[in-house]
Input
Amino acid sequence: MKTNGRWMCVGSQTGIPVREGRMADVGGHEIAVFNLGDRAVAVENRCPHRGGPLSDGIVAGDTVVCPLHAWKICFSTGSVLRPAEMACVSTYPTRVQDGYIYVSLPIEASQEAAPSPGPMPAPAADTPPASGIGCV
Output
């Protein structure tokens, strides 16, 4: 997980039911964002097997199960746990602040976003959100 990126708001945590995911287009990347109740996690939205949408998968503990062929992906490492394959997806640092979920993307993946050093304020009403979940 890379941490030296730019933080982008992907929406309200309440916009995603607990233990479910939603797809967000962030900096041209499809990201699967999951609300685990006490935290949010984000991974690449494409299963390494056949490209299934992980945002539509079933959350099982700290993993998501791909809806197409039941590949199990670890949220923290992006590694495929089942079947035992040498494959993985990208993972992205997340923060929840003031009820909003922020995802950090590598700088080259988020050229349009401005850096957000220190604490992140709630987005202004005129701040365009990443598409998918929506910021207020």
In short: The two ends are 27 Å apart (CA to CA). The CA atoms of residues 126 and 136 lie 9 Å apart.
